[in-house]
């Protein structure tokens, strides 16, 4: 089993749970089986209105899988991954066996340190441009994981994505099923829940950017949110699309791994991502984006990259909450 102990494997699971997920729903569970870590999708946490096919769920599990691989490598061992190993068990995302020991690269150490530091952003950015060399690095990291990250250079295309995001947000706000999901995952001030979106994870009054990308209304008119002044947070940032050549369950998991690789590398340079999944939660809007902006690839994530005014706190379920019996 290389040099990995039971404590090492539990630390890997704790790291995996810091992956991003829509509404911070954390739709995963883990188990340890001798020298293997088992990653399962927790379908009880799937967003049934927004994500009926489980695409976003598997993106989240893919991000958790990248964390597993990174944390194992940081112990000096090698992760040996079998993705979707049993067709009769669709919730079984991966089995990761601990391979031979080896040297730990500096990049692996850096990424491992960023896992609990990375934060999802839910506002505008300060007027500091993301360096082109960093964007080039993020593009290469996504490619290494089997996906494509494309910074959207066209001002017109950015306006289209912003308009579609706002339109999707407005439609979802009128839909009872979507609204109930928001109620489930939007946490009030002082909540002790270790999942969902805390009330201080977004500004009480977000500054509008141009073009403006609509944010989820977790406060639901209750006046929740961080009251800190953010006069500098007026920039949209770099809008980027994460795409894959296929659109199978394996592609969704691969996209999640690529997403987390991008996010951790960005975090190491102080850059955060804001996610805008609203338009991709409508099939016809997702098809439109694919045909007009991504053809022939499938859009898996719309995001904005930039420098935040400050980082928000993160909440995650504890190890006993996510670690089950094999």
Automatic annotation (TrEMBL):
Keywords, ordered alphabetically: Flavoprotein, FMN, Oxidoreductase
Domain Nitroreductase: 5-32, 117-307
Top-level taxon: Bacteria
A Pfam family the protein falls into: Nitroreductase
InterPro entries: Nitroreductase, Nitroreductase-like, Nitroreductase/BluB
Coiled-coil ranges (or none): none
A GO MF label: oxidoreductase activity
Name of this chain's protein: NAD(P)H nitroreductase
Gene source species: Acrocarpospora phusangensis
